[in-house]
Amino acid sequence: MEDLEALIFEDVENYSYTLEYYGEVDQEETAHLTAVHSVSLVLYCVAFILGVPGNAVVIWFTGFKWDKTVTTLWFLNLAVADFVFVLFLPLYITYVAMNFHWPFGVWLCKANSFIGLLNMFASVFFLTAISLDRYVHLVHPIFSHRRRTLKNTLLVIGAVWLAAALIAGPALYFRDTLEYNNHTICYNNFHQSDPGIVLMRHHALIWLRFAFGYLFPLLTMSICYSCLVLQVKRRSILTSSRHFWTILAVVAAFLVCWTPYHIFSILELSIHHNGHFHDVLQAGIPLSTGFAFLNSCLNPILYVLISKKFQVRFRASVAEILKHTLWEVSWSGTVSEQFRNSENKNLCLLETTQ
């Protein structure tokens, strides 16, 4: 049982780390952790409040109002991934607010972790695909003209969702609940008796997510956008400056949001060898995951709303909606006025005949 309790320090997708360690810290440290968790809750709520309407707007326009193009398909699927992810945030917000007590049962423990990982990594992969698409479209226009089709884009989109599902899949198998100290904890049950298997599985999942969910996307985006900056710089200094700051914001947002997440994921592996980082992990895991959550509400701003073409089309679509709404109101008002005038005329005729 001691080995099992030592392993409740969970992976960062739902990070319900060991509650028994609260008994080993003094009141000052407990107050500090409570303050850190409060800040984390604020980050989760901000991600939910901004992420739901922001991604919903993108889904509405790219999915229902605009013509289907390669670009709109990328942004639509990116917004869907972020939207589904933030939509499930209230479950985790409740979990943290209840002092890491999971009242929703084992199946929602599994489903929540799977859906969270699926959409978080699908979002990262779509950001990577967008950077590759922009690079190919601008730097290799001939190849882009031949291969950049809706059919091929749909195939890549399917591959992205499949890859994200494969990375998230182990959550359906390993996630479990445990009753401990009047709390129900949602954690990764890698094995109940063999520490060697636990260590191997934990390391394998963490390094797999680091390599494919952070290192590969970061290198891909950095290389693609660096090449784009060089290409744009050759054409126009003014355009280069504008694109430089846009690209810098995109890469910086990815670094700020995801680097702490993966650093603490790797530090979490230390619990198998010593307890030196326990206090650091208790404070750092919720905060770092909160920053990762924020990336899902920043994506609509950095990747879509920052585009001048999107802004023009967005304003045009809003103007069209307002025009249609005002026309309906005006038409309804005109019909009502005509109906009232008709009633008045009929009433006058009736009075005259009488």
From TrEMBL:
<keyword id="KW-1015">Disulfide bond</keyword>
<dbReference type="InterPro" id="IPR000826">
    <property type="entry name" value="Formyl_rcpt-rel"/>
</dbReference>
<feature type="transmembrane region" description="Helical">
    <location>
        <begin position="153"/>
        <end position="174"/>
    </location>
</feature>
<keyword id="KW-0325">Glycoprotein</keyword>
<keyword id="KW-1133">Transmembrane helix</keyword>
<protein>
    <recommendedName>
        <fullName>Chemerin-like receptor 2</fullName>
    </recommendedName>
</protein>
<dbReference type="GO" id="GO:0042923">
    <property type="term" value="F:neuropeptide binding"/>
</dbReference>
<dbReference type="GO" id="GO:0005654">
    <property type="term" value="C:nucleoplasm"/>
</dbReference>
<dbReference type="Pfam" id="PF00001">
    <property type="entry name" value="7tm_1"/>
</dbReference>
<dbReference type="GO" id="GO:0007218">
    <property type="term" value="P:neuropeptide signaling pathway"/>
</dbReference>
<keyword id="KW-1003">Cell membrane</keyword>
<keyword id="KW-0807">Transducer</keyword>
<feature type="transmembrane region" description="Helical">
    <location>
        <begin position="244"/>
        <end position="264"/>
    </location>
</feature>
<feature type="transmembrane region" description="Helical">
    <location>
        <begin position="73"/>
        <end position="93"/>
    </location>
</feature>
<keyword id="KW-0675">Receptor</keyword>
<comment type="similarity">
    <text>Belongs to the chemokine-like receptor (CMKLR) family.</text>
</comment>
<dbReference type="GO" id="GO:0097003">
    <property type="term" value="F:adipokinetic hormone receptor activity"/>
</dbReference>
<dbReference type="InterPro" id="IPR002275">
    <property type="entry name" value="CML2"/>
</dbReference>
<feature type="transmembrane region" description="Helical">
    <location>
        <begin position="284"/>
        <end position="306"/>
    </location>
</feature>
<feature type="transmembrane region" description="Helical">
    <location>
        <begin position="41"/>
        <end position="61"/>
    </location>
</feature>
<comment type="similarity">
    <text>Belongs to the G-protein coupled receptor 1 family.</text>
</comment>
<dbReference type="GO" id="GO:0004930">
    <property type="term" value="F:G protein-coupled receptor activity"/>
</dbReference>
<dbReference type="InterPro" id="IPR000276">
    <property type="entry name" value="GPCR_Rhodpsn"/>
</dbReference>
<dbReference type="GO" id="GO:0097004">
    <property type="term" value="F:adipokinetic hormone binding"/>
</dbReference>
<feature type="domain" description="G-protein coupled receptors family 1 profile">
    <location>
        <begin position="54"/>
        <end position="303"/>
    </location>
</feature>
<keyword id="KW-0472">Membrane</keyword>
<dbReference type="GO" id="GO:0042593">
    <property type="term" value="P:glucose homeostasis"/>
</dbReference>
<dbReference type="GO" id="GO:0043005">
    <property type="term" value="C:neuron projection"/>
</dbReference>
<keyword id="KW-0812">Transmembrane</keyword>
<feature type="transmembrane region" description="Helical">
    <location>
        <begin position="113"/>
        <end position="132"/>
    </location>
</feature>
<feature type="transmembrane region" description="Helical">
    <location>
        <begin position="206"/>
        <end position="232"/>
    </location>
</feature>
<keyword id="KW-0297">G-protein coupled receptor</keyword>
<dbReference type="GO" id="GO:0005886">
    <property type="term" value="C:plasma membrane"/>
</dbReference>
<dbReference type="InterPro" id="IPR017452">
    <property type="entry name" value="GPCR_Rhodpsn_7TM"/>
</dbReference>
